[in-house]
Amino acid sequence: MSELNDFGGGQDPSGGVLVVTTNDVPGHRVVRVIGEVFGLTVRSRHIGSQIGAGLKSLMGGELKGLTKTLVETRNQAMERLVEQARARGGNAVLMMRFDVTEAADVGTEVCAYGTAAVIEPLD
């Protein structure tokens, strides 16, 4: 179970904001579109994981230390996205996406972004 937690991610269901990668939510209607929201984080590279990754790349296989760090980073970006949507009065984020880029050769920038909206169940 620990590996599932280390290498998985996604939304905390208790957050009060539904995050989906689709344009709409089945069984709901969009009452109001608030606009773009994003959550951003930049993580520096840990020297130990870089050395381990370098050695592992010689032999092949998954870089579990880097995978775990990226999962944590994506989850933090998503938490910030949800905070922004909630702060602007939204209860949903539609069309959520991640963008990952190198940040000045010292780390990784992860941005979760989407459209904040207010949705309600259909009658």
UniProtKB/TrEMBL annotation:
InterPro entries for the chain: UPF0145_dom_sf, UPF0145_YbjQ-like
SUPFAM superfamilies the record matches: YbjQ-like
Pfam families (alphabetical): YbjQ_1 (PF01906)
PANTHER family on file: UPF0145 PROTEIN SCO3412, UPF0145 PROTEIN YBJQ
Family per record: Belongs to the UPF0145 family.
Name assigned to this protein: UPF0145 protein GCM10009759_13220
